[in-house]
């Protein structure tokens, strides 16, 4: 789905220390209530809505007809990775107890240890009851390194959160460390200076998807350079992902100009999840390399998305400063990569786009959230928070959810409020080493 179908002071601190040292965003009482209600309801997707055998997030949930196409047992590695981060938020927010959270995480890790893997990488989908791969498409029935990287980003946060806990928590952190070290990133280069998205035991490299930027996959290259056992050379990043510098755009003069060449749209940027998925743990604040200032890139990406919706050049009903956000999501006819361009904006708003952008656009995101919650709740809000997408133009409101859209809401709202997941991920010594190797600078690297 998403692009492939439409397209570090070392913080050796205990968990309580992360909570104590995190920045706090103070909200007015009325806003705080809405913020927490949205975050809690969305968290429940990964708690109450999880597949019971694996403990992982289901790929999707349809409140109108439950699980279509035999999807009730389909669990997802990428969305599941977002889900383990959401469980940490649930523990910190006291939506669940720490004991409950650790027990669920242990179930998930046990599943990941025994489920199908391919040179250390997990597939996009499994059957959650059996751990056997469920093909995402005919030839996509093996390792998916992008989705695996989303899972690893979450697991490393869990490792850092638990590593100084009690004996049970320390043991679980050690098991996560083993899973991380088993992912053979070098295998996924085919000996070339680029990472490949897929490998299949039946179709080998037939999908031939070399991952180049810019899209949602930066985290995969950071982790590949950070691996303590199978790290790739920096040339894989610079020649593969950055295409020997071709990833850069010519410098624009506008204050909100983008620095990177987004696949499919070099003016307003691609679907907004490109500024979310890699940055659930990877802190973009002060993060820079020879190609971009990533805080500036993500903020400008979100602002361009917002301003497009406010300007509303395609004249869709309901667009404006209190209802905005274009990203890949459910759509009126299936699934689509909504983005701010005449071609890719088809009148469908995806709440995850604005809500997951809270760190970048706090005022604009708050305004949209409050409008939807206070004035459209009957049409847009259900048991697991805001539905995936809607269109006032088409009078289309779907009571459906996707793990890959719900997860970033919980995590990025928490990063806005306390920076919890950013601090956890960036405390990983391997991540700091990997960022150094690739030539990044970050406040975490200068202490």
Describe the structure in your own words.
This protein has 447 residues and is mainly alpha-helical. The protein has one domain: Glycosyltransferase (Alpha/alpha barrel), CATH 1.50.10.140. Helices cover 41% and strands 7% of the residues. The chain is built from 15 helices and twelve strands. It has a two-stranded antiparallel ribbon with strand order 1-12. It has a two-stranded antiparallel sheet with strand order 2-3. A two-stranded antiparallel ribbon has the order 4-5. Helix 2 crosses helix 3, helix 2 runs antiparallel to helix 13 and helix 7 packs antiparallel against helix 8. It is globular, with a radius of gyration of 20 Å. It starts with 14 loop residues before the first helix and ends in a 9-residue tail after the last helix. The N terminus is likely disordered.
Any key phrases for this structure?
disordered N terminus, two-stranded antiparallel ribbon, mainly alpha, 447 residues, Glycosyltransferase, single chain
Please write out the topology:
Elements: H1 15-21, H2 29-47, E1 60-62, E2 74-76, H3 77-92, H4 98-114, E3 125-127, E4 143-144, H5 145-162, H6 167-181, E5 198-199, H7 218-226, H8 234-241, H9 294-311, E6 328-331, E7 334-337, H10 351-355, H11 362-375, H12 377-380, E8 381-382, E9 385-386, E10 390-391, E11 396-397, E12 400-402, H13 403-417, H14 420-426, H15 429-438
Antiparallel strand pairs: 1-12, 2-3, 4-5, 6-7, 8-9, 10-11
Helix pairs in contact: 2-3, 2-11, 2-13, 3-4, 3-5, 3-13, 4-6, 5-6, 7-8, 7-15
């Amino acid at each position: 789905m998403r692009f492939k179908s439409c397209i570090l002071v070392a913080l050796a601190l205990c968990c309580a220390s992360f909570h104590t040292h995190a920045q706090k965003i103070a909200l007015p009482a009325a806003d705080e209530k809405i913020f927490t209600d949205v975050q809690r309801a969305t968290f429940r997707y990964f708690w109450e809505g999880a597949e019971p055998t694996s403990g992982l997030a289901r790929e999707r949930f349809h409140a109108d007809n439950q699980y279509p196409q035999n999807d009730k047992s389909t669990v997802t590695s990428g969305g599941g990775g977002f889900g383990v981060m959401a469980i940490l938020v649930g523990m910190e927010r006291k939506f669940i107890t720490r004991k409950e959270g650790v027990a669920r995480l242990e179930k998930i890790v046990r599943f990941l240890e025994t489920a199908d893997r391919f040179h250390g990488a997990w597939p996009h989908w499994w059957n959650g009851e059996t751990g056997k791969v469920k093909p995402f498409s005919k030839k996509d029935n093996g390792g998916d390194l992008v989705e695996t990287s989303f899972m690893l980003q979450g697991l490393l946060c869990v490792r850092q959160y638990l590593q100084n806990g009690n004996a049970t928590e320390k043991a679980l952190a050690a098991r996560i460390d083993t899973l991380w070290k088993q992912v053979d990133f070098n295998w996924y280069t085919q000996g070339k200076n680029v990472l490949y998205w897929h490998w299949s035991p039946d179709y080998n490299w037939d999908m031939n998807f070399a991952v180049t930027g810019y899209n949602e996959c930066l985290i995969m290259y950071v982790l590949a350079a950070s691996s303590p056992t199978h790290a790739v050379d920096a040339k894989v990043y610079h020649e593969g992902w950055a295409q020997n510098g071709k990833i850069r755009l010519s410098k624009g003069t506008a204050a909100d100009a983008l620095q990177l060449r987004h696949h499919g749209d070099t003016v307003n940027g691609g679907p907004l999840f490109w500024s979310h998925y890699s940055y659930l743990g990877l802190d973009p604040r002060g993060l820079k390399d020879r190609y971009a200032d990533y805080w500036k890139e993500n903020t400008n990406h979100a602002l361009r998305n917002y301003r497009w919706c406010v300007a509303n050049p395609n004249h869709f009903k309901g667009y404006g400063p209190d209802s905005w956000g274009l990203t890949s999501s459910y759509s009126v006819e299936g699934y689509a990569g909504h983005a701010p361009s005449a071609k890719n904006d088809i009148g469908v708003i995806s709440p995850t786009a604005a809500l997951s952008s809270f760190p970048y656009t706090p005022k604009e995101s708050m305004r949209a959230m409050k409008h939807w919650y206070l004035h459209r709740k009957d049409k847009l809000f259900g048991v697991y928070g805001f539905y995936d997408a809607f269109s006032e133009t088409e009078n289309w409101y779907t009571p459906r959810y996707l793990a890959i859209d719900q997860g970033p809401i919980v995590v990025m709202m928490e990063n806005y409020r306390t920076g919890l997941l950013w601090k956890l991920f960036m405390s990983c010594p391997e991540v700091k080493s990997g960022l150094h190797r690739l030539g990044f600078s970050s406040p975490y690297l200068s202490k």
